[in-house]
Amino acid sequence: MTTTLDSGASLRRPTLNRPTIAVAVLLVVACAAPFQLAPFRVFQLTLVLVYAIALMGLNLLIGYTGQISLGHGAFFAVGAYTAAIMQHHWEMPHLTTLPVALAVTFLLGLGLGIPALRLRGPYLALVTLAIAVFLGPLLKRFSSVTGGSMGLTLSKPAPPAWTGLAEDQWLYFLALAITVVFALLVVGLLRSRVGRALKAVRDNESAAETMGVRLSWYKSLAFAWSAMLAGAAGCVNTWVIGFVSPDSFTSTLSITLLAGIVVGGLGSTWGPLLGGAFTLYVPTLSQDLNQAAPGVLFGLLIIVIMYVAPTGLAGLVGRTRRLVHPLLTRKKK
User: What is the pTM of this model?
Assistant: First the structure.
């Protein structure tokens, strides 16, 4: 009888699955990294997290709703300039700029998402690209507010004395904390009824509408949430860089973000993080070759990855794991 109860208790004992263990290990490594790396490497990792936040939004829009956007660099810029203007003109604390940047870009995304409902595919991509193209000249025109072509130079968040952290380490942990919070929110959203509705819209709009899904409502919300995440990334980027300029937010940024999420893996949990690393490190590592190398290598790697792994780096990792796991299991037997 005792044995039976013990075995029943053991069956009810909670167990950790592999994704949970992988996330826990990754967080431990992420927390230890800034104490083991040089300041410049910590700065690079911080920018990877910034890009990952923006790519979460783009993944939500394209990977889970099926809407194509080439204008997310504009939302990135709006979030960056919202934070910069609040700091430069009103001397607002850094952390107070984040909720304002979220609200501004959410409303902007919602406002642009409603008229975009009539468009899809390349037509929607063209309209969003137009937004990214004209935003730069618009920022230069209002120089009294935005600093014009010269931009705005800002202070960076100073680490509290009680932390004992250097500035680069403090910025990294701020970016890491914000990334984790948004990742949890996105995962929770996708597992909810709303997430299932977004996936239904992506897979078959007619079938989703038949099942009672309000297409216009969910598409508009997805666009707004996606813009909000891009704005959050822009705000954190302003803290990390300490400078904003219209030339930093050209249409190339929008195309780079799109390439990053496609390479990372559309519709995957790890796609934004892998895409952020690809977006930062490929141009950086090839910069030493010559001035043309980053663009050339970036393009060639996109072609190679799309050929080898059509579902992106996240899909390639998953496929490799499924191939290796049976081999390891056989060896143990």
Answer: 0.90
From CA 270, how far away is CA 23, in angstroms rounded?
A: 10
Q: Which residue intervals of 142-285 are DSSP H helices?
A: 143-146, 167-191, 193-203, 205-210, 215-241, 251-264, 271-285
Number of compact structural domains in the chain: 1
d(CA 182, CA 180): 6
Q: Write out the residue range of the structural domain in which residue 220 sits.
A: 37-154+164-249
Specify if 296 maps to a domain.
Answer: no
Write out the two tokens for 184: 């949890």
Residue 207 counted as domain residue: yes
Nearest to 236, CA basis, from 57, 110, 90, 63: 57
Q: What is the mean pLDDT of the chain?
A: 85
pLDDT digits (tens, 9 = 90+) for 209-222: 777 777 778 888 89
**What is the average pLDDT across 8-35?**
74
CB of 214 within 8 A of CB of 52?
no
